[in-house]
Amino acid sequence: MAKVYISDIIEAPIDTVWALARDFNGHGEWHPRIAESTIEDGMPPDQVGCVRSFTLSEGGHLRERLLSFSDLDHAFTYSIIVSPMPIENYVATFRCTPITERRATFVEWWATFEVGAEDEAEIRQAVGQETFAAGIRALAERLEQA
Fold first, then answer.
1. Which of 31, 62, 103, 117 could be stapled to 27 by a disulfide with Cβ–Cβ 3.0 to 4.6 Å?
2. CA–CA dist 34, 61 (Å, integer)
3. How many CA atoms does the CB half-sphere of 47 hold within 13 Å?
4. What is the pLDDT of residues 38-89, one digit of tens each?
């Protein structure tokens, strides 16, 4: 089982960060890899069980199911149902925690998944740096512009 973990600090209060990040379908507004995204069957984007279907800017298509969601914990967990990547049993969590000594937010994004040894380094890079790290940076940049 492979694991990828990325964390960073966003210089904004948790309520501001979570207000943007909590929308399971909102990643198309701030993540550079997302071209377009929709929630299937008209479900709300914070309802456990909803499925987001999205296209990457480079052309791949994914479907992900929301497994858990908590405004109290500022976190959600999801799984990949369909992916162009050679992975299985992918489960990821996105979580925000307040930094109490200043108005900032500690953001964590991690995933576990199964991948063949021949693809592991490439997939770790794609998930860790190109998706999670780039996404956290883009979220921070979006909030700076607001």
1. 31
2. 10
3. 10
4. 999 999 999 999 999 999 998 899 999 999 999 999 999 999 999 999 999 9
29's enclosing H/E stretch is: helix 27-30
What's the CATH code, domain 2-145? 3.30.530.20
pLDDT, tens digit (0-9, with 9 covering 90-100), for 88-126: 999 999 999 999 999 999 999 999 999 999 999 999 999
Residue 17 belongs to what H/E stretch?
helix 14-21
Q: CA dist 93 to 36, 64, 78, 144, 145, Å? A: 21, 12, 7, 24, 26
Q: 13, exposed or middle or buried, with CB in 10 Å at 0-12, 13-18, 19+?
A: middle
